């Protein structure tokens, strides 16, 4: 995700639903006092701060320096590190991740790194976009880019697996899966769909001249409006979540 630029301030303003929804994943984590917990793709650290209230020691990693800085400003420890290049030796009781794993397309390298970072029987608890996530949005973006060749090629930077596929991957990387579920979670976008696109489709629009960016935002919004907008609810994105709780039962060599 090197071409994705993150702006922690804008993220906190227009994407606070990410951590609001993430609270149920941190409940599944059930952090305990004095546990060492790695927050993989920690973002601005809002959930890490909540987890730390249990008395656990939370350490964040994120590929974005802007996000790491935002987490450090909360007085929490974090460093810039790509999820597919984790370097921790069996030091964590748990690895937690919310709304981040879908950006890490080298998922096998991620799972190897998580396995190595965990102590024996350590848990891996996470939620991210699963099969079918943002289908309407992705289809619309692809169509708009295809209709406007000057926008370049559409690149899909996300990994949205099915529960079966991801369970197999977890098992192949030394984990026992205690629970895994794929579910639709329609997500209200209080700041509207164009604000969502500016943050999450930044890899497509960064580098476009302003007029072309404006066309991309307007035409994508027009295409998804019949599916994602209603006068009663406003904009609601078609999110699908994959949530799981796994345990390290074998160390990878
Ligand atoms: C998400 O499912 O959280 C998501 C996926 C792709 C882009 C933005 C958000």
From TrEMBL:
Name listed for the protein in its UniProt record: Cypemycin methyltransferase
Gene it is expressed from: cypM
This enzyme's EC code(s): 2.1.1.-
GO MF annotation, one: S-adenosylmethionine-dependent methyltransferase activity
Pfam families, per database record: Methyltransf_11
Stretches assigned to the Methyltransferase type domain: 38-125
Signal peptide limits: none
UniProt-listed GO biological process terms: methylation
